[in-house]
Automatic annotation (TrEMBL):
Pfam families: Cass2
Gene3D superfamilies found in the cross-reference section: Regulatory factor, effector binding domain
Species per Swiss-Prot/TrEMBL record: Flavobacterium limicola
Domain AraC effector-binding: 1-139
Protein name from the UniProt record: Putative transcriptional regulator YdeE
């Protein structure tokens, strides 16, 4: 994937909101070449430890090649082999925040903290009936 990124923690929602604001405000979608689809990926990766530590958030698109990466963007090969899928339904971003709260409270979830991905497809734009898929990497 190619996208824009920030290093953050779960304590700082401002960093996440700022990155999404930059993504939309600077028309990042139009700057990413070689898109494999129109689905927006938000990838949580490079975890320092667990949900309490630093991690990198990348917002962008899956691509067919890393040719011509724009200045200020990053590329990353993302693989989520074993995962648990969650679906957020309703008004965004409230629905996805609710899902992340559920993920954080799930004591049975054996998270791998490698790469977690939210996919914002066509249903993301359905206002109060939006849907976003979240894939959490796990250890078997």
């Amino acid at each position: 994937m190619i996208g824009i990124s920030t290093e953050t923690t779960n304590e700082s929602m401002i960093d996440i909101e700022t990155l999404w604001g930059k993504f939309w405000g600077e028309n990042s979608a139009d700057k990413i070449p070689n898109k494999a689809s129109d689905e927006i990926y938000a990838v949580y990766t490079d975890y320092q430890s667990d949900y309490t530590g630093k991690y990198t958030l990348i917002i962008g698109f899956p691509v067919t090649t890393f040719d011509n990466i724009p200045d200020g963007f990053v590329e990353r090969n993302i693989s989520v082999d074993l995962n648990v899928k969650y679906i957020s339904k309703g008004k965004m971003p409230e629905a996805i925040l609710k899902t992340w709260t559920e993920i954080g409270q799930d004591t049975q979830l054996n998270r791998a903290y490698r790469a977690d991905v939210t996919i914002h497809g066509q249903k993301y734009y359905h206002r109060d009936n939006a849907e976003v898929e979240t894939y959490i990497s796990i250890i078997k």
